[in-house]
Design brief:
The chain is an alpha/beta fold. Helices cover 30% and strands 18% of the residues. It is globular and about 40 Å long.
Amino acid sequence: MVRRSAKAVLKSTVRPVLVVTGHEREAIQAALADLPLTFHHAAAYASGMAASLKTGVTAARSAKAILVCLGDMPFVRPDTLDRLAAAYDGQAAILPTYRGQRGNPVLLGASLFPAILTLTGDEGARALLKSIPDQVAELALDDPGTLRDIDRPEALRDC
């Protein structure tokens, strides 16, 4: 699943592609070893999602923005990533929507990086984005993959 997700990102024009590992670090690196990306390990991954997000932000600290793509969302189309990147014009964040429902991946502007580095626990940037609704843009896309995460292996059988 993570390989499919990574390959979809690599089919987009978004670069560089950084992979943040946590649980099962070695297995993930082995599954992606032949792909043109770099790995960054979130040593505190067990403390929650914030540790992974902070690791990614630290690794990309000189970027104007980052796209946070999730390894359990292998159905996000590459053109979705390209459209999110192309829509960036200094906003704090851009969220894709599908039929009015917010999804992933989320684009986070560098203006949020300092606040992201203070996050803790398992909520990621959700609470931060809720606190600045006027700085968060939505981009309507025709990509149901932005809402579809895979929590169990059997969910992939229908694909």
